[in-house]
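Page 42, continued from yesterday. The earlier attempt failed because a stray header line got pasted into the input along with the sequence. Redoing it now with the clean sequence only.
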Amino acid sequence: MLLALSVTIASYGLLGDSAAVVIGAMLVAPLMTPVLGVAAALVMGWPRRLTLSALQVAAATAGSIALAWLLTVWVPSGVFALIPSEQLLARTEPSVLDLGIALAAGAAGAYVLVHKEEVSALPGVAVAVALVPPLSVVGISLQAGEYADAGGAFVLYLTNLAGIVLAAMVVFFLTGFVPVRHLRRMFGRIQLGFIIAACAVLVISVPLIYNSRLLLSTALDEGIVRQEIDDWLGDETTLELVALDVSGDRVDLDLLGPEPPPPATALRIELADALGEDVTVKVGWIE
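This time it went through. Structure tokens are written below.
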């Protein structure tokens, strides 16, 4: 029930582009418990409990995506392109930074579980974990036909999942959660559990590294483009740059002001020289 409420809150918070509502959904979400159960089962070498916890996580994952899809069936087609949500879009392009956050959140969650006196930190851990919002984005994006965004959000969810499990296992191991006798008896299984968790993190790191490099490259290109636009407009211009989109070899910009912009050909030539490749430039002018 709490998971369904969390998905509902997250889905509508994402559609409304409300960070406060999305944070509220994180606080309600109960998904952290079975995820830590997976970590505990791996570090203890308990295959049956691992299977049970993994099935719970899988069922919660599928159910959350399906519910988010159903909750947004009424949303008209194409509304996401017309009214983009920053909260939604922010969860479609995961990077290596997200893996670092997941590792820290997993360690914090496991630490609080082992040290009950730190229970006051649970709300902060819940916000840091952020498992439900990416699942809501997957469902919303699938319903809207934005399959690339759905894929990106699901990679973010898997990143959080893998990072939390591995970090929690390390904390459980270091804090004496595993008795020495049990460790000696189940060493092979426990070692295998660590290998599986580490491999999962390594595999998910591949798209994260690729996406991080892509985001960095785009940010650098956008900085160059902005500088060239400033030079193209000149110091005396009354025009204001209100929108800019740099996508590969295409640059779209919108200018606001009383005077018409200079010829776009000059900007295209300068951009091609600065970026080292031919670009298509589209200039919009709003009087």
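Notes: The longest strand covers residues 240-247.
Reminder to self: strip header lines before submitting.
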